[in-house]
Design goal:
0% helix, mainly beta, elongated
Amino acid sequence: SVKGEHLSDLQWSCAPFQVSGPLNVVVNTLNGTLALADSGWSLTGAMESLIPEQSLSPPVEIETAATHAWKLAARREGTSKKILFELQGRGDGPVMVSTSGGRLSSQKQEIGIEGHLHEGALVADGKWVAKENRIAAPQGLVSAPELIIEHGLSIQPGDVGRASSMTAQVTLPQVNATSGPRSIHFPKIALNVVGRAKPGRPWGADALLKLSNGRIRDRSSGLGMTHLSIELPLAWPDASAARPGQVNIDTLQWNRHQLGGLRGSLQQTPGGLTMALRHTSQMLPGLRAFIKGEIDQSGARIEVRIPPHQMAEAIDLGRFNPSASGF
């Protein structure tokens, strides 16, 4: 409904209603103001939405109802054909989604989008922040205080001859994972994506996944890794176009013994990943090991090659096990 005595000061409302589809959403309130004038028009609005408990494509289920508050604004000035818009959303309650593999939860969400429509083209930038995130599964727990997604989007009509494009930056700070005696910590995990679609052609995207300065520990075996960094370029839909990446582990440790480092290349393939690594031993000076591996849907295959090596001096095995002292 629209009410008001003057075109420059109208009040509108169009709720409650429900949207049914892949995701069911209930809009409890949606109202605002509308101002019409020779110099253009402007619209503001406020909305409260509810995502109820529901089952999506099996086995995904939304276990808790989630309420969000939204503010929206749009305007067109003068004879310009450009429509500017802005959308801000906030959810202060928990969101819990379960699958066959575990449960994902987030306590707070903030969403912001702004952009414009002009002659059939859509240009928008946005940011989504989810706080207090956890993934709980039988194998263990993964947590991150924030998930930050920043994106840009440019959708061009097909008849103008310009390509559509998108960018996205996904950041996870202070990621922790535990599984029994094993623990993993990364101060930062980042994924940068650039996508493009030429007129009449499908979308393609390149991405770079970066895991920085990580630490892995296994209390049961005494094994540990520090200063673990991975840079992995990704390509879609043609994975064979992905460039080689790199992996670097400054320190491998077994109990109190420094084993040395590990570094090499990592590359996406149509079936999974391949790697070629080199280990230089610190515990056995001069010893090197070369590791080749492949990971795909059928599993992992690892090949280790150690060239013949002559020790410069004898090593007392008691360094590793006191019962072997003297050998």
